[in-house]
Amino acid sequence: MFNCASLFAGIGGLCMGMERAGFNTAWANEFNLDCVRVYKDNFPNSNIIAGDIRELSVEGNNLAPVDVLHGGFPCQSFSAAGNRLGFEDERGKLFHQIIRLIEEFGEKKPKMLLLENAPNLLIGDDGEWIETILTELQLCGYWVSKRNCLLVDANKHCGLPQRRERLFIVATSQDYFLDNPFDYNFDVVEKEDIQNFIELEEVKEDYYYLDKDNRFGSKLNEDLSKKPNYSLSQLRKTYVRPVEYGFCPTLTANMGAGGHNVPFLLDAKGLRKLTESECLKLQGFPETFKLPPASEMAKGKIYQMIGNSVSPRVSELLAKLIYNYLSENLDENRLAV
User: 4, 15, 35, 75: which one is catalytic?
Assistant: First the structure.
């Protein structure tokens, strides 16, 4: 079995995909204590280190060497929907902490890297952001170039009824491999029926419902009343955003920011937002994934961490390719211990 570790672990979307592919999670790091709580509930046997990555160190935290280091470093600075300040933003600068930790491992650095971010990272600042990242990784001794920057969509490539394209950078160590073959064009798969993800017949608690006479509710109700059951609608500021039937809008961390950022639907009782469990399923998490009760954690925080998460379906797709590559190309005598 190969070992992996996670930076910016969140609630474990990347870890879940890696473990489904056969990896063992040696350790993980996450700053947000609410995410740490959820992570521990769902990965009880993992060693998650709660705290700022800037205070994490190989020696100080006794971090075990691993075969694969993965992480979705903060995307707000690079996303088209964010401030686009790149490395001028403190969150953008956190990428350099990944480089620092790799260097601290020295000769025991990870054999492969899997890094996740927003697609806009590829083109932002006239391409300077991605060039900076690739150059830093190359200087650390990894085979990586733009052809190893893979765009994966949760809908097209994993069948989820949510269009959610993310960027994944795959790097291979020059100490172990002769090149980096990760330049895949993924097959397009059939979309799953959105009815499998939404609990339309089950009436929910009052928290989720919006009065259709509300000035926002009236707009949403007008839109949804013209559409078939299981249709979704979403407000963007003051207008209703068109949503194609059978699809869910991209779920984002803004769902936890209040207002009406969570998609809405019409059920037997009335106009309501998607529940946390429905959002989890639309992200590709299993129904067995555990969330804290409302008495212990605000719903807004839960929506936010779901919107921030990496889809386990997507991470599993990539993790299987990485696991197979390691199995076929790595001498067992040189595995991480």
Answer: 75
